[in-house]
Design goal:
Elements (H helix, E strand, L loop, with lengths): L5 H9 L4 H6 L12 E10 L2 E6 L5 E5 L4 E5 L4 E3 L16 E6 L3 H4 L1 E9 L4 E10 L6 E11 L10 E4 L4 E5 L19 E5 L22 E3 L5 E6 L7 E5 L7 E4 L34 E2 L7 E6 L12 E5 L4 E7 L5 E5 L10 E6 L5 E5 L6 E8 L2
Antiparallel strand pairs: 1-24, 2-3, 3-4, 4-5, 6-7, 7-8, 8-9, 10-11, 11-12, 12-13, 14-15, 15-16, 16-17, 18-19, 19-20, 20-21, 22-23, 23-24
Length: 385
């Protein structure tokens, strides 16, 4: 994979055909344009809404990290899902109620998954939960812990994004808990992407270390990560699961996941954040990022591939949220998974810190902000006219 720093992207985007030249081309040969974006504040008064999922009929389910609530927006008002055990969620720093995912058969089984801080007999952990909702999506009717014991310290680098596939597997992106030995240690669940059975919680049989004598190692799909906060499935025929990872003071990364791949973060001795995000001096082969921010970091978080004919040139791009940089980056990717260009629309640079982007049905995607103190919103973004 090529490594392309942010400074190079300006030159790439400048190479696009200028508007005058575009107008002189026959219609059949014109590149699709980027439409303007119509942004609407859909849900307001929130506090660190970490993840959101459309659930049909214009409704949204979403999590709030520090309030530790699972909520339903019914198109007019927000109501907390009854029976969700807020008091069982450990909230500290970057950890609380984080990732949310709906089952591929959600329309009939009403199953959702969360990734959250939890309490143990000796302290805390991060865990993955499976919940079943009632038909109205207003109350919990059943619950199950799928996987616990994801490492944590102060709550820093808690991860934790989820992605459910139609084959019955669930991907989990985890943080390294700011512990230097975790990313490259295959017996730790931290600094990894994990893959498990979404019903039983058992390790997925295609995982590279599925036959290991160590139970935790069986869950590992990729390793050598710092803090995976985004997972997205490319659905345009080229396929692949992609991760979005926060860098240190440099090099946020977007990676395409390869089963058993080492992504090269090894901040030892101690927790030395001056090491490269992808350290090619380590034993074996390390996989380079498809995109990296360079210096300084943008603090990337969640993201998703955006699809819809109404999106023009945005169709099929990977939308990546940035916290510190307060923007959304749209990465145009080649079928080979190499980077082609990056676009940053001004319309999404007005809302402060952006936590995630989630594609919706039709020509809409949803954006959550991360400013805190009840000032956060969920935005609905559609192509303008």
């Amino acid at each position: 994979m090529r490594r392309i720093v942010l400074g190079t992207l300006v030159a790439l985007t400048a190479a696009l055909v200028p508007p005058v030249a575009q107008a002189q081309l026959p219609a059949a040969h014109r590149a699709p344009g980027f439409p303007s974006l119509h942004v609407k504040r859909l849900v307001t008064g929130l506090d660190h809404p970490w993840d959101v999922r459309p659930v049909g009929h214009g409704r949204l389910l979403f999590t709030q990290r520090d309030r530790a609530t699972l909520s339903l927006w019914d198109g007019e008002r927000v109501r907390t899902v009854e029976g969700f055990p807020t008091d069982s969620v450990w909230v500290s720093g970057e950890t609380g109620l984080m990732g949310l995912e709906t089952d591929p058969d959600f329309a009939t089984n009403h199953v959702v998954y969360t990734c959250q801080g939890g309490f143990t007999t000796s302290g805390h952990d991060v865990r993955v939960m499976r919940w079943t909702l009632n038909g109205k999506l207003t109350a919990i009717t059943a619950s199950k812990e799928l996987l616990g014991g994801l490492p944590t310290t102060t709550g820093r680098h808690g991860g934790c994004r989820l992605l459910a596939l139609k084959d019955g597997s669930l991907f989990v992106g985890t943080g390294d808990a700011a512990t230097g030995t975790n990313p490259e240690n295959k017996k730790s669940l931290g600094g990894k992407t994990l893959r498990l059975n979404a019903t039983t919680g058992r390790p997925w049989p295609n995982n590279p270390f599925h036959k290991s004598d160590n139970r935790r190692k069986r869950y590992v799909q990729t390793f050598g990560h710092r803090n995976v906060q985004g997972l997205a499935l490319r659905r345009d025929g080229t396929g692949g699961v992609w991760s979005i990872e926060q860098g240190t003071y440099r090099d946020d990364e977007v990676n395409v996941l390869q089963n058993g791949g080492d992504y090269g973060y090894n901040p030892v001795p101690g927790y030395n954040e001056d090491v490269p995000m992808t350290d090619h001096s380590l034993p074996g082969r390390q996989i380079s990022a498809v995109w990296r921010s360079g210096d300084p970091t943008l603090a990337t978080s969640g993201g998703d591939f955006v699809y819809g004919q109404g999106w023009g040139a945005y169709d099929g791009t990977l939308a990546v949220a940035a916290l510190k940089a307060e923007r959304v980056l749209f990465l145009t990717l080649k079928p080979t998974s190499d980077l082609e260009s990056v676009r940053v629309p001004p319309a999404l640079k007005k809302y402060g810190r952006i936590r995630t982007v989630v594609d919706g049905p039709g020509n809409v995607f949803y954006v959550t902000t991360d400013n805190g103190n009840g000032a956060d919103v969920i935005l609905a973004v559609r192509p303008g006219t």
